[in-house]
């Protein structure tokens, strides 16, 4: 441990991984109130206060898992939020009446998952929700009246629907339907009583980089992200009858990310491309000066988190690498932004490390992008943690990452790479990951380590592999397929056997099975191939210590995925630690469980990477 590392003040885990001070700030529809999530008796709840004043009060009183997502009803009288039981992802939708604080369970059904589809300012007392209450494998769409809890069916799912598209009048008029080859069809109907017709068919090469965004105001066209006849997902304006289209926005390498629509005209105002950082392309001159004013407030990447009904006030969230989320209100008439708060202001008392964008060339010629965070004052021959993202169909972003800051503060470099199969870099890069779990996707991770060693950044004898979900699978692959590269591995809710993983997905994932078979493998036709890519069947190769953590109620990666490999390493007398959280699912929502995991992981990494321990 160098003097520069040991001189840096230790950031307590409680600050990095406990509850934030305030998060997910939102404006009320009338612009008069600001809401956010904050702890009440140590549990995240919804707080509301009048805008411009410094007093707020909790309007919910959860005492268990905490509330993690919520939104305002357009009636300005209710806030709605989701809650599951122990991490089982069977979300129920609740409403809170802001006048009398009454909480109502709007979807009081056992073993049913509620998905919020759409709200509308023109239908302030209604929400469209999808529920799998008639068939556990298929979510039908219901119109929900917030004030009464009344539900009425508006769209029946035949069993192949991946998602729904709603028009300006809150009618379900579009759907994405899975096809047997791993592709998807875009279905449209004239009204809720008409038959569906297919206007676009995406094959398996295009399906994951294409998706509908929404209808135009008159319902005659749709905005769609479409990667046909090109590499990247571009935004197009498509005729809802014929499927003909014209391009609205595109980048030759990067897919369109966020699309910002005018809440009254439904026209596109701006699109974001996530390159090394998020960059907005403004398409509507009416917001050009607003975006310029917002950019002058803060040098972080931003999103417009909420807008009032008059579209005069916006709430802006900024993300930055050395600062937790910063929230501002923005007055469009005055072009003035006002700072509200940081998500975790106590971090300002500590020195944080920069997150740097990096890239290298893989062994077969692909450009791989990623991010590295160094311990302050150190860039040479440091212990390193390869932090692998989940999905795998997602990507790492620039911004504030608690794990990066924690590892850098403890004396390690933290490297996150967007290996092939990651999203956002065009369909060729995405599809290069097909059937490459533990294959070329892992080679990209190996190449990342070798790049960091060649650059002189990483000590080759002290590299750990760490991740959750797919990243947990990658950690197990690192321990079994390339056991000489890493000195230890940390697996959080990662699968160990691809056969049992795919055979045990939640029943409502049925429409995604063809895609999983195309991109990972089909256990009925390719069992031996999937076993050849599964860490469970290469346990004899393990030479390094393992830390495995699992939620008992995980619906995606079942408890058995961790326990079967734990049993195998135990039988062989190998070095391992296993944490099972009986009240968690696919990740750790409760701060006491998060803190228990990170305490264990910190001791584990300090032992094997010679870093600092709180």
Structure description:
The chain is α+β, with helices and mostly antiparallel strands. The protein is built from 12 helices and 35 strands. The strands form 8 sheets. It has an 8-stranded mixed beta sheet, sandwiched between helices. A 4-stranded antiparallel beta sheet has the order 1-2-3-4, with no helix packed on it. It starts with a helix and ends in a 5-residue tail after the last helix.
Which labels suit this protein?
614 residues; alpha+beta; eight-stranded mixed sheet; four-stranded antiparallel sheet; 35 strands; 36% strand; globular
SS-based class: alpha+beta
- Count the strands? 35
- Give the helix tally: 12
Q: Spans of 5+ residues with little confidence (pLDDT < 50)?
A: none
How do the helices and strands line up, and which of them pair or pack?
Blueprint: H1 3-7, H2 13-17, E1 23-27, E2 33-40, E3 43-50, E4 56-58, E5 70-72, E6 78-83, E7 92-97, E8 103-105, E9 114-119, E10 126-135, E11 138-145, E12 151-155, E13 161-166, E14 172-178, E15 184-188, E16 197-202, E17 211-215, E18 221-226, E19 234-239, E20 245-249, E21 256-261, E22 268-274, E23 278-282, H3 288-295, E24 301-307, E25 313-320, E26 323-331, E27 336-342, E28 355-361, E29 367-373, E30 382-388, H4 402-409, E31 413-418, H5 427-431, H6 440-454, E32 458-468, H7 470-480, E33 488-492, H8 498-503, H9 513-519, H10 527-532, E34 546-551, H11 559-571, E35 576-581, H12 591-609
Parallel strand pairs: 30-31, 30-32, 32-33, 33-34, 34-35
Antiparallel strand pairs: 1-2, 2-3, 3-4, 5-6, 6-7, 7-8, 9-10, 10-11, 11-12, 13-14, 14-15, 15-16, 17-18, 18-19, 19-20, 21-22, 22-23, 24-25, 25-26, 26-27, 28-29, 29-31
């Amino acid at each position: 441990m160098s003097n520069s590392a040991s001189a840096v003040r230790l950031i307590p885990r409680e600050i990095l991984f406990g509850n934030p001070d305030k998060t997910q700030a939102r404006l009320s529809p009338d612009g008069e109130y600001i809401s956010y999530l904050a702890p009440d008796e140590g549990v995240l709840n919804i707080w509301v206060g009048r805008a411009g004043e410094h007093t707020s009060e909790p309007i919910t009183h959860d005492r268990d898992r905490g509330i993690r997502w919520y939104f305002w009803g357009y009636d300005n009288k209710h806030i709605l939020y989701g809650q599951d039981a122990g991490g089982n992802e069977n979300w129920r939708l609740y409403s809170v009446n802001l006048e009398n604080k009454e909480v109502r369970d709007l979807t009081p059904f056992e073993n049913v998952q509620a998905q919020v589809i759409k709200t509308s300012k023109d239908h302030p007392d209604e929400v469209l929700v999808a529920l799998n209450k008639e068939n556990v494998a298929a979510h039908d769409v219901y119109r929900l009246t917030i004030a009464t809890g009344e539900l009425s069916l508006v769209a029946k799912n035949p069993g192949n629907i991946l998602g729904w598209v709603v028009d300006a009048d809150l009618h379900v008029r579009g759907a994405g339907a899975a096809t047997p080859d791993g592709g998807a069809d875009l279905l449209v109907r004239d009204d809720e009583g008409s038959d569906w017709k297919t206007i676009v068919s995406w094959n398996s090469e295009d399906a994951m980089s294409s998706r509908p965004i929404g209808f135009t105001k008159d319902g005659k066209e749709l905005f769609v992200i479409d990667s046909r006849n090109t590499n990247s997902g571009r935004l197009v304006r498509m005729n809802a009858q014929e499927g003909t289209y014209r391009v609205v926005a595109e980048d030759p390498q990067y897919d369109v990310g966020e699309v910002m629509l005018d809440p009254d005209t439904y026209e596109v105002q701006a699109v974001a491309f996530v390159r090394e950082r998020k960059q907005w392309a403004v398409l509507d001159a009416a917001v050009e000066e607003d975006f310029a004013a917002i950019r002058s407030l803060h040098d972080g990447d931003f999103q417009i988190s909420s807008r009032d009904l008059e579209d005069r006030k916006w709430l802006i969230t900024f993300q930055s690498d050395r600062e937790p989320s910063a929230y501002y209100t923005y007055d469009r008439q005055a072009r003035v932004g006002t700072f509200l708060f940081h998500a975790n202001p106590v971090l300002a008392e500590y020195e944080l490390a920069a997150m740097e964008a990096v890239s290298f060339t893989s062994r077969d010629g692909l450009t791989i992008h990623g991010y590295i965070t160094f311990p302050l004052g150190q860039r040479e021959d440091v212990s390193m943690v390869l932090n692998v993202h989940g999905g795998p169909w997602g990507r790492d972003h620039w911004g504030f990452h608690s794990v990066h800051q924690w590892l850098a503060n403890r004396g390690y470099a933290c490297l996150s790479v967007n290996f092939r199969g990651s999203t956002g870099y065009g369909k060729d890069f995405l599809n290069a990951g097909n059937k490459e779990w533990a294959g070329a996707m892992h080679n990209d991770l190996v190449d990342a380590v070798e790049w960091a060693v060649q650059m002189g950044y990483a000590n080759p004898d002290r590299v750990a592999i760490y991740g959750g979900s797919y990243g947990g699978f990658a950690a197990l692959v690192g321990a079994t397929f390339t056991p000489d590269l890493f000195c230890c591995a940390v697996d959080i809710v990662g699968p160990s056997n691809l056969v049992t993983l795919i055979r045990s997905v939640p029943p409502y994932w049925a429409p995604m099975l063809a895609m999983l078979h195309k991109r990972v493998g089909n256990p009925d036709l390719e069992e031996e191939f999937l076993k050849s890519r599964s860490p469970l069947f290469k346990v004899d190769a393990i030479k390094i210590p393992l830390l495995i953590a699992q939620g008992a109620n995980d619906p995606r990666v079942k408890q058995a995925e961790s326990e079967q490999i734990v049993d195998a390493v135990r039988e062989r007398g190998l070095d391992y630690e296993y944490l099972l959280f009986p009240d968690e699912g696919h990740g750790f929502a409760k701060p006491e469980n998060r803190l228990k995991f990170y305490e264990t992981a910190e001791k584990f990494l300090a032992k094997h990477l010679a870093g600092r321990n709180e």
